[in-house]
Write a structure and sequence with these properties.
This protein is of the alpha/beta class and 305 residues long. It has two domains: 3-126, lpxc deacetylase, domain 1 (Ribosomal Protein S5, domain 2, 2-Layer Sandwich); 128-294, lpxc deacetylase, domain 1. The protein has seven helices and 18 strands. The protein has helices at 77-85, 108-117, 176-183, 192-200, 231-244, 262-273, 289-294, and strands at 3-7, 11-16, 23-30, 37-41, 50-51, 91-95, 119-125, 127-131, 135-139, 142-147, 153-160, 166-173, 189-191, 213-215, 250-252, 254-258, 279-283, 303-304. The strands form five sheets. It has a five-stranded mixed β-sheet with strand order 2-3-6-4-5, with helices on one face. Helix 4 (192-200) links the parallel strand 13 and strand 14 (213-215). Helix 1 packs across helix 5 (231-244). The protein starts with a strand and ends with a strand. Bound molecules: zinc ion. Zinc ion binds at residues 77-78, 188, 235, 239. Zinc ion (ZN) binds at residues 77-78, 188, 235, 239.
């Protein structure tokens, strides 16, 4: 049996927002089965709690934001990706600022903190969204599709007119262990030539070589170089997992993306939710043994019952 998970105890992380440049403390608390991931701003007394749900997504320019206006929660995608990667379905998050801390630009810091905090099994079976019919969305020469598959598979292609990136394609089959090893360490990236423009737009104020891969016109300028040869497409998979976790369930389906971003991921999720004939919600017990194994946590993460 695979049970729903939360964290074993409360935990706090402090860092800066990549776009706001503001220091923020994120506190995570264990929560009950079937409550999902919920965020609340504590710096704004009137702020409402917002559930991590694709239908609550506001702006998607350069990050994924939950809600709109002054009490929105910005840049949720890397934290949500880490939670999905460890199969943590339920957690209550409080933040004293507008943006989830960027940490090192990947989800590895969140994975590390969650591993140290430990995971608790709840007394309720995990639920899966099994895709039964393909759904596809397109926008300006980019596309994203989800179609039936036993396990979550992400086939991602990115294309950048840059000699270090060019076209990168990677097919990732989900397991908690593969996520931790192959995806969680891949960092976000940006072009040096875009930094001034982003800063003028009020974005990337907290961006630095400590939390992003930065490229000049020819090469990566971070002194330690890349963590993976194809770190860029691996980060796209990390973002995709965070964004599709907003469907609210563990997924069984194959996602194919071409030059996709947060906007298109959200359009895909909304189309899925608006097409009830394309999915079924099932209990983990009706999946194959192999898929259930993929959602088991590796030995180095302590799980309490
Ligand atoms: Zn990202």
């Amino acid at each position: 049996m695979i049970y729903q998970r939360t964290i074993a105890k409360e935990v706090s992380i402090t860092g800066i927002g990549i776009h706001s440049g503001k220091k923020v403390t994120l506190k995570m608390y264990p929560s009950d089965a079937d409550t999902g991931v919920v965020f609340k701003r504590t710096d704004i007394p009137s702020a409402q709690a917002i559930k991590a749900d694709a239908r609550n997504v506001g702006p998607t320019r350069n990050n994924t934001t939950l809600g709109e206006g002054a009490d929105a929660i910005h840049t949720v995608e890397h934290l949500l990706s880490a939670l999905y990667g460890l199969g943590i379905d339920n957690v209550y998050c409080e933040m004293d600022g507008p943006e989830v801390p960027i940490m090192d630009g990947s989800s590895a810091s969140f994975v590390f903190v969650l591993k140290e905090t430990g995971v608790e099994n709840l007394n309720k079976t995990k639920k899966f969204m099994v895709i039964t019919e393909p759904v596809e969305v397109e926008h300006n020469g980019t596309f994203a599709r989800i179609e039936p598959s036993k396990n979550l598979i992400i086939d991602s292609t990115i294309v950048f007119a840059h000699p270090t990136i060019n076209t990168q394609k990677e097919i990732f089959e989900f397991s908690c262990e593969n996520y931790i090893q192959e995806i969680s360490r891949a960092r976000t990236f940006g072009m040096l030539r875009d930094v001034d423009m982003l800063k003028r737009m009020g974005l990337a104020k907290g961006g630095s070589l400590d939390n992003a891969i930065v490229l000049d016109d020819y090469k990566v300028i971070n002194q330690d170089g890349l963590r993976f040869r194809d770190e860029f497409v691996r980060h796209k998979i990390l973002d995709t997992i965070g964004d599709v976790s907003l469907l609210g369930y563990e997924l069984a389906g194959k996602i194919t993306t071409y030059k996709s971003g947060h906007y298109l991921h959200n359009v895909l999720c909304r189309k899925v939710l608006d097409t009830p004939s394309c999915f079924e919600i099932v209990s983990a017990s009706s999946l194959t043994q192999e898929v259930r194994e993929a959602h088991r946590l590796p030995q180095f993460i302590s799980v309490t019952n």
